[in-house]
Amino acid sequence: VILIKQTIDIILTVDKMSELILYYWPINFRGHLIYCLLDYVNISYTIVSTSDLLTLKNAAPKDCLANFMAPPLLHDTSNNLYLAQTPAIITYLARKYNLYPNPENPMKVALAEKTIHDCSDCLAGLTRNNGAEMWTKEAWDLFSTTRLVRWLQIFENTATEQGLKINEGFFLGTTSITFADLVIVATFHTMEWALGDTIGDILRTNAPKMMALTDRIVTSNEILSTKFQSYKGTVVYCGGFIEQSLRSVLAGGDGATGDVPIPTK
Amino acid sequence: VILIKQTIDIILTVDKMSELILYYWPINFRGHLIYCLLDYVNISYTIVSTSDLLTLKNAAPKDCLANFMAPPLLHDTSNNLYLAQTPAIITYLARKYNLYPNPENPMKVALAEKTIHDCSDCLAGLTRNNGAEMWTKEAWDLFSTTRLVRWLQIFENTATEQGLKINEGFFLGTTSITFADLVIVATFHTMEWALGDTIGDILRTNAPKMMALTDRIVTSNEILSTKFQSYKGTVVYCGGFIEQSLRSVLAGGDGATGDVPIPTK
Description:
2 copies of one chain form a homodimer. Chain A is an alpha+beta fold. Chain A is built from 12 helices and 6 strands. In chain A, helix 10 packs across helix 11 (about 220-230). The interface of A and B includes residues 106 and 110 of A.
């Protein structure tokens, strides 16, 4: 049991099993960016229950060391750091586990950090800002043939300019893997894994080198390859009505919720 | 004149006047996060015309080294880096101009980076995701008394826990200024400066130490103090219909566009 602040009564039920504790909804989506990084470096982490997450999320900021608005939230118990905001969590962990590009190349460092934000924008676009609006067939047809394609061209061109080849290399042409590679896996390999071949075809047509890179990374890593083998095509993505709407348009429907059941795993 | 790629015909009209060239809309908003950082360290930069920005933004990614979706976009001509995404631009410039917290304190580094994302979320909240929806009186009353207040408490508590005092210190309790302080100035001092005392009162009531910090930083820096003196209360904020809607609810209106004129400076 972890006591968040001794002077008040927020008590979570999580046992301290790992050095790293993650608070996130029971979906993949943004949390996967953190999970894939930790899985790749084989660091164990504990994901707390949704009720513990809600306890912390609904606490007044002054009563809660977490100081956060929304998950994902990382608690690194080794230095008692509570850290929200996916990009900040990723760069923190990348420093901790030596996944940054060489600091002597500030351009690659900058492009690696940009990659997180580009991926985050893609996730927001795919879910119409986390479900602020539902998909219609018209909106999906437009997005999937224009803005999504431009995003994929941006990723593919960046990688090509930095030195990625179809059969070898890393996203930013680095000599070893960086967090940018793992963010790309977590965003695009997950997207195809959870949502299936309709979106996978769009990804592979417009960003073939990037998708081949994700295949190589997943295949070469035992934890990631096991993770992405399980549940293929039957895995929850972003959850909520927007996942139902997204799965509807991907299946050729009109985006109405309730058309397509959401996986429960 | 800068030739973007020699093999194709995208030619911009900007003269190379500064090492740093910025592409952004003629508003303050997110661009201010970059301008305030550069102003503080007294580094000159050139802001290109909107037509040059549009030329680059509308180019196919493969024809354009910029590889970006939306401004702000930085071109650092010293190493020919084109870099989009506000948080990535800020951390790149913070490394370049020594505005990072001491790397021996990874917690402060992480919280400084989190600060950028928290500020960015506040800007998105204040503009209903960059104008995706207009304000109504009801929506504003709810936001300004709940979510906005929670954001301000998050900032104020973080700063207090890290060591900020009402009359001295920096946002994360560092011994010298960091990019987190300048992002706070750019977000909240700008908000009050451009939008006036209705929002200023909310900021100062809920985050008094943070706002006192912004006052100290602006007062102590000649370029920032000159910048924030000019045009006070008559300066464009985020532009577009959403600025009209925001100014309407701030003036007690119902959020209808056209109620309140937007400043042109």
